[in-house]
Amino acid sequence: MIPDTIDVTDADGAHCVGSCAAVSGVLSRIGDKWSVLIVMLLADGPKRFNQLRRMIGGISQRMLTLTLRGLERDGLVTRTAFPTIPPRVDYELTPLGRSLRAPVQALGAWAFEHQTTIAKAREDFDARVI
Question: C-alpha angle with apex 117: 2 to 8, nearest 5 degrees?
């Protein structure tokens, strides 16, 4: 069972009680694998839709659209449409989105540093389960 509240520490180190439901909504957005990749790709500056799609690889047009809309809805990305032929749409991180760059990079660095240890743990687990 998921608790209704969770004890957390805010950015200033103050102890506070926050709503698990509110936090889980934010974490589900920024914890999504596509969202993390898009945030990192947009960290270098604005990108067009098809440019993002080519850079990511393996993401469907629909999933990229849904992920970008979710990031835009959460205030992490802005979408700018230019009235050209063909139409041009750029996506860019907002200041809030840029503030996510450092934690995402830290998580990526941790994953890269520990990938072999995790792969070994998975192998050991899978060998025991069979």
Answer: 30
Cα separation, 30 vs 37, whole angstroms: 10
pTM to 2 decimal places: 0.73
Residue 5 main-chain phi, psi, to 5 deg: -135, 160
Judged by DSSP in three states, 42 sits in helix
Question: Which amino acid makes up residue 85?
Answer: I
In three-state secondary structure terms, 121 is helix
Helix (H, G, I), strand (E, B) or coil at 107: helix
94: pLDDT confidence band, cut at 50, 70 and 90?
A: very high
**Closest listed residue to residue 30, CA positions, set 61, 75, 60, 62:** 75
Distance, in Å, from the CA atom of 4 to the CA atom of 20, rounded to the nearest integer, reads 6
- Between 32 and 67, where is the model more confident? 67
Going by C-alpha positions, the residue among 75, 87, 83 that lies closest to residue 49 is 87
Rounded CA gap, 37 and 104, in Å? 9
